[in-house]
Write a structure and sequence with these properties.
Elements: H1 4-50, H2 57-98, E1 103-105, H3 112-118, E2 126-137, E3 140-154, E4 160-187, H4 189-204, E5 212-214, H5 219-224, E6 225-229, H6 232-238, H7 241-254, E7 258-272, H8 289-310, H9 313-319
């Protein structure tokens, strides 16, 4: 796989002239979005306050929700052409530069069944995503995409609302080797939030998750992650010191919470970003160095972890 330095060179030498053209389009689009946004808000405010005395609290809530939803729809419609151009002219060549066997499908995402099978998160009630990438790395089938999974709630009046279960990058690798049990690696939120004593108690009595708590013999790994599994021996067999170091390295370099699951023939990884990773912002310059590097580093880390996991395949195959 190309190094970050090689990808950065490609980005600036080959894609920068296209970015400069897109940057001009972005500036014009930003101006139109701001004008439409202000006009839309003024019209809404005039109507809202004209009829305010006739509204009850339910209608006020409905009007505000409708204002936000319609505003979001108008915004997405206005930026759709710009967004598609960015993905076709920048993201696709960048992904092909990493490996020309990859397929990039901007409007598709990983199937919800893979998300459920990972057992990393509760089953979602609403599910969406985009920017699906599929391919092979050293014979390992790989796919990843942005995902947004949400849980539905209803209040006493039957009104629905949604809260995010997971938003970020979701990776599925098929190693064609079968894990007998199920092992999950999660961020150690309990111990980091409540300290060693209460955190350990909460981890040991985790009523929301199946499987036993598995203590690993790496203090650094234990500080960042908690492991649950249906088979203590297999979990320790899978999570070698080398692999724990790689997961730690990945977490450190992504700078975001990392979740890993080993089940059946698949390894699942979820990296929580709480935003669409590969969506261009209308309100930030495309020419900013930080933005370019975020795209490149995320792609490189996503694909690089599979290369690193591949090194453990021989070990797992002896066990499977």
């Amino acid at each position: 796989m190309k190094t970050i330095s090689e990808l950065t060179d490609f980005y600036y030498k080959t894609l920068y002239p296209i970015l400069q053209e897109l940057e001009e389009a972005r500036k014009h689009l930003k101006s139109r979005v701001v004008t439409v946004g202000i006009t839309y808000t003024i019209i809404f405010a005039l109507l809202f306050f004209s009829f305010f005395q006739y509204m009850d609290i339910d209608f006020i809530v409905f009007a505000i929700v409708a204002y936000v939803a319609l505003g979001g729809f108008i915004y997405k419609f206005m930026i759709s052409t710009y967004r598609d151009e960015f993905k076709t002219k920048i993201m696709k060549p960048l992904i092909l530069e990493i490996d020309n066997t990859f397929r990039y499908i901007p409007n598709m995402h990983i199937d919800v069944e893979f998300f459920k099978r990972s057992q990393l998160f509760p089953s979602p009630d609403r599910f969406s995503g985009n920017d699906l990438v599929k391919g092979k790395i050293d014979g390992v089938d790989l796919k990843f995409s942005d995902l947004h999974a949400e849980k539905e709630y209803k209040d006493s009046k039957g009104r629905r609302s949604y809260s995010t279960i997971f938003k970020g990058l979701f990776i599925v690798s098929d190693f064609h080797k079968n894990f007998q049990g199920h092992t999950v690696v999660l961020p150690d939120i309990a111990q980091n939030t409540f300290g060693d004593m209460i955190g350990s108690f909460l981890q040991s009595n985790n009523f929301t998750r199946r499987g036993e708590l598995i203590k690993m013999d790496s203090p650094e790994f234990e500080k960042e992650f908690v492991v649950y599994g249906s088979d203590q021996i297999e979990a320790r067999y899978i999570l070698t010191h080398s692999l724990m170091e790689k997961i730690l390295h990945y977490k450190k370099h992504s700078g975001h919470p990392v979740y890993v699951s080993f089940k059946g023939q698949n390894i699942y990884m979820a990296i929580e970003y709480n935003k669409d990773l590969f969506e261009p912002s209308v309100f930030r310059s495309l020419l900013e160095y930080k933005i370019a590097m975020e795209y490149i580093k995320t792609l490189h880390l996503s694909i690089g972890i599979v290369e690193e996991l591949k090194l453990n395949q021989k070990l797992w195959s002896k066990h499977g």
